Amino acid sequence: MANESNGAVFEKLFETITNTNKQLVENFVNTLTPKQPEAKEHIYETVLSSLMQNTGLLMEKQGEFYKNQMDLWMGMMARHRGDDRRAEARPGSVDRRFNAPEWEQYPIFDYIKQYYLKTSKWLTGLVDEASLNDEAKERLAFFTRQYIDALSPTNFAMTNPEVLKLAIETNGANFIEGMKNMAEDFEKGHITMTDESQFEVGRNLAITPGEVVFQNEVLQIIQYTPTCDKVYEKPLLVIPPCVNKYYLMDLQPDNSFVRYMVERGYNTFLISWKSATPEMGHLTWEDYVEQGVIEAISVVREISGQDKINALAFCIGGVLLSSALPVLVARGQNWLESMTLMTAMTDHSEPGEIKNFIDWNLIHRRESKIAQGGVISGKEIARTFSSLRANDLVWNYVVNNYLKGKTPPPFDLFYWNTDSANLPLPMHTFFLRNMYLENNLVKPGATTLCGVPIDLKTITIPVYNFAAREDHIAPWQTCYKSNFVLGGPVRYVLGASGHIAGAINPVKTNKRNYWVNENLVQDPEQWLAAAESRPGSWWQDWDSWLAPQSGPQIAAPKTLGSKKYRPIEAAPGSYVKEKAVKV
Description:
The protein is 44% helix and 12% strand. By secondary structure, it is α/β, with parallel strands linked by helices.
């Protein structure tokens, strides 16, 4: 009887595991497929089909799943009997979701954690074994990770022991506060990443003194007040990304790149892009090149009285500047002495995981609406980039803000990250098609702007090309390719950390390091292996490179602007304070 009873129990157990496994895969497919209407093929159904046709692999994967579950059940039973046993499944070294001692202190939560980690590994294995081409498999692997991250037990109150413990200690007050936080975030249209009450543009952000000396439909130009008696003869124009507010370059005094430039004696001008309004919905990439970059260069030349200036461009600002320079060269307007690219891709052949969100169906749908114009929400773009690091930039705040009912600590970078700007539909769609999908910027003559076939080889001025090693938006290996598509001498420098923290690395804090290597071989990994690591901020290296391109030092201007371009208002100006309209 006992054997029959045990047999029935195990039969029931295996039936439960089988049903769980079946439901898991079905949920996996059903959850993901509707979210990817742009997919070129139904890769999730293809995975199921290939598994069903390969019975040997299917049996192997089912057996692996059974063994994982049996090991977990037996381990939990052992712990129930008092056996001292370490958890069999461990999160990765950088995975902080399960750091709280409660995950190992209580057998049931230890089991939940291990079930999640083992099943995540099993799902990833399914993808690895799928009969798909490399592109489809990479896309599937990305969205599988998205699915796995979303279903983490840390993201749900009843399976997170930290949350349950806090609920007991606060008599459920954490849930009440969490609901308030969630309601406020719904109203704002983004997840709160910092205590936003601690920051205000013009009060403790973007406070480097200066004046707005020009404005048009797409931008304001700020000239900053010199802090030195002498400045370099050739001025510096800073071109930030137009999808964000410019003050990433001018956060607080201790980490302001703008302040550093001014203090180093550069006569500094900066573009403050206007967040696109519905009235701007007809603007194109050409408009941002002509009315944006080229107009700004022209104004800075006239105010400074210099034939040539230096320009520094960050992220998509670097793509705009690289688009504009061949136009100027074709017109005989050789107005730049040098160009600095900060985490900017001219070659988009390997753009990183963001490519999983962009395909032809998306472009075709957008292009069908271009004639009517429209605006792309900056918040939508910001959410897309955050999803690339979902555990750190999405789920971490879901747990902290909504389940624990807490307010994140103040952090200026995160405040800036949620203060996004909108873009015109035609402009952004051109960017996605010509850069991400067709990679036309590096193909001579493939794109025509302002009547000029674009050829980056016509850019023969010196270029400082900076990338960040952990950048998930502009991968450093892809930024490295710019060294070979431009026509002039290039200094390539690789900084530590990511897209933002790697770029905004103040000299005063002396954190991190950067790599230099004068020998620009074709293979970026080979370049890095032979590169010299230097401590501190790359800003110092850039300053040493830019100074010789900037001419002799002359007396600093006593007034800002000129007779033609008189100051309009004090920095930071009005454009940067405008909140992006909801679309």
